[in-house]
Specification:
The chain has helices spanning 12-26, 53-73, 85-90, 93-97, 113-123, 134-140, 169-172, 181-193, 220-227, 248-256, 273-278, 285-298, 317-330, 356-380; strands at residues 2-8, 30-32, 41-46, 79-84, 103-105, 127-129, 151-158, 177-178, 198-203, 211-213, 216-218, 235-239, 263-265, 303-310, 334-339, 385-393, 400-403, 409-412, 422-430, 435-439. With 440 residues, it is α/β, with parallel strands linked by helices. It folds into four domains: 2-132, Rossmann fold (3-Layer(aba) Sandwich), CATH 3.40.50; 143-261, Transcription Regulator spoIIAA, CATH 3.30.750; 265-380, Transcription Regulator spoIIAA, CATH 3.30.750; 385-439, OB fold (Dihydrolipoamide Acetyltransferase, E2P) (Beta Barrel). The strands form five sheets. Strands 2-1-3-4-5-6 form a six-stranded parallel sheet, sandwiched between helices. Strands 16-17-18-20-19 form a five-stranded mixed beta barrel. Helix 5 (113-123) links the parallel strand 5 and strand 6. Helix 9 (220-227) runs parallel beside helix 10 (248-256). It starts with a strand and ends with a strand.
């Protein structure tokens, strides 16, 4: 039995891809292992979004190479595969900096891994596949029969056509591609049959979904409505969205479809129109606020989450204050916030950069505001009863952790029998990052 070790970096889309790689190679006789030292194949499924992603990859490759050398000393082979977005972005440069790497494969071509691993035996190392074969990829992947758990993830859309000036996704994931409706629906059926009560629909720009079905084009709202017909499925979420693609039918669906959870991750990135234009976001702060107003009119209790980049080139103190004002005006539940860092190959990478100490100070102010807002949100939940889907074991004995409809963590003590169940919980205490409750 050949053994496979996969290390996944970054977003939930990469987690989904790693699951598919595992399923793909299991059909070729590979068995997953958590021990790198015994792996015949190590796959590093990389992400290019975070700062210094390439350098972190090369550091990890150095550690993996030591394992490979130790195995070679024992007359055992090991194949090292770099997959994902850093693989796509770095390409053959990886072989120059880490010649012991055998295969580099992009996020749209990992379906070719079985043939690449066979070729390694005949042709030696340094095989590369960076093609953007979306339809071929999903046609060649085996059915996703792996049981993910009570909360399962389903990729429906990949790539992005927006070309925000800070983002590498269009270059590493390619143009927008939507999987056919029937293919997505069948995978959702399989996930539900394997015990999924909640499905999270994934895409780099998920609300741009436009899949085909019987000669018609389905929007994301149409797709959610179809998946909601699966009787055993109780919850549906989607991430990540772009404000320009929040269509009227999708906004309205938040007020009509009970299985669609009252939570939305909708990145704004900046509250300054000047910075939004420099980022090539193609919307204004006012446009974004109007979308928020429409969402709240459709679903008054919707909880909102966002992304904000601090210190983008040319951002002034006034621009930053406009961001702070927008955050308070929207009243976010929570936020992913980052200091801007250049991504090679993107337009903003060559612009004059704001000093790190300025970016850091602004980020601290923003995060302090966000922390207080999240804590207030959690405290405001006290006394309310809400359905919670428990999917994790807690840190303490007999403790379980679940997600509320608003996508925040709910803890219950002395209730391990609730794992994988959806039950009504009365919230008793709100903390900085979670809430605690009791079963009603």
């Amino acid at each position: 039995m050949k053994k496979l070790f996969i290390k996944t970096y970054g977003c939930q889309m990469n987690v989904y891809d790693s699951d598919r790689i595992e399923g793909l190679l299991s059909s070729c006789g590979y068995v997953s292992t958590q021990d790198k030292d015994e792996a015949d194949v190590i796959v590093l499924n990389t992400c290019h979004i975070r700062e210094k992603a390439a350098e972190k990859l090369y550091s990890e490759l150095g550690r993996v190479n030591k394992i490979k050398q130790a195995r070679q000393n024992q007359q055992k082979d090991m194949t090292i595969v770099v997959a994902g977005c850093v693989g796509q972005a770095e390409g053959s440069e990886i072989f120059s900096r880490a010649p012991y790497v055998d295969v580099v494969v992009g996020p749209q071509s990992y379906h070719n891994l079985p043939s690449l691993l066979e070729k390694i035996k005949l042709e030696g190392r340094h095989l590369i596949d960076l093609d953007f074969g979306f339809e071929e990829k999903f046609d060649k992947l085996p059915e996703n029969s792996k049981a993910q758990g009570v909360v399962s993830y389903l990729s429906i859309q990949e790539g992005c056509d927006k070309f925000c000036h800070f983002c590498v996704v269009p270059y590493t994931r390619g143009a927008e591609f939507s999987r056919p409706v029937e293919q997505v629906y069948n995978e959702a059926l399989m996930l539900a049959a394997n015990g999924a009560k909640e499905i999270v629909l994934l895409g780099q720009n998920v609300n741009a979904y436009h899949g085909s079905f019987n000669g018609s084009t389905y929007s994301l709202a149409d797709l959610i409505s179809k998946i909601a017909q699966i009787s055993s499925l109780q919850r549906i979420r989607y991430t990540t969205s772009h404000p320009r693609d929040m269509s009227q039918d999708l906004i309205a669906l938040h007020g009509k479809e009970e299985k669609l959870m009252p939570f939305l991750h909708l990145p704004i990135q900046s509250g300054s129109d000047k910075i939004l234009s420099a980022m090539n976001r193609k919307h204004t702060a006012q446009y974004y606020l109007e979308v928020i107003d429409q969402l709240r009119a459709a679903r008054p209790d919707i909880a909102l989450h966002t992304d904000i980049i601090v210190g983008f080139p040319t951002e002034t103190e006034e621009d930053f204050e406009q961001t702070m004002k927008l955050v308070e005006q929207v009243g976010y539940m929570n936020c992913f916030s980052f200091m801007y860092s250049p991504r090679p190959g993107t337009p903003a990478a060559t612009a004059e950069q704001i000093p790190s100490e300025v970016k850091y100070e602004r980020l601290q102010r923003l995060q302090q505001l966000i922390r207080s807002m999240y804590h207030n949100f959690n405290k405001a939940c006290v006394g309310h009863v809400m359905p919670v889907l428990f999917d994790k074991i807690g840190k303490h004995p007999n403790q379980v952790v679940g997600n509320s409809p608003y996508m925040h963590s709910v803890y219950i003590d002395n209730a391990q029998d609730l794992l994988n169940k959806l039950v009504d919980v009365k919230i008793e205490k709100g903390y900085a990052n979670s809430v605690r409750g009791v079963v009603v």
